[in-house]
Amino acid sequence: MMVVVVSNAPPRLRGRLAAWLLEVRAGVYVGDYSARTRERIWEQVVAHIEQGDAVMVWRAATDQGFDFATVGTNRRMPVDFDGLKLVSFAPKE
Questions:
Q1: For 16-52, what is each residue's pLDDT tens digit?
Q2: Which contiguous run of DSSP H or E holds residue 28?
Q3: Are 66 and 87 in contact (CB under 8 A)?
Q4: CATH of domain 2-89
Q5: Residue 88 backbone dihedrals phi, psi, to 5 degrees
């Protein structure tokens, strides 16, 4: 299972995501694909996000049971804390 959440994404990217995944809410896409397909979808997100931002979460064999990746400017930044992936908030500008 994987979830992709986009903000301020261009319509072209949203259309690409809708072709592969189910859009359950505005900007929230879910699906169940292999690791290879998941990586290809993420490559498309990274290549076409422009001024927006995105996060992808997927099931993984980690202590948390999931992993995630982010792209774009966002106050929430992933931080590795002794093998656990946590989220740190950047201060407001």
A1: 999 999 999 999 999 999 999 999 999 999 999 999 9
A2: strand 28-31
A3: no
A4: 3.30.70.240
A5: -110, 145
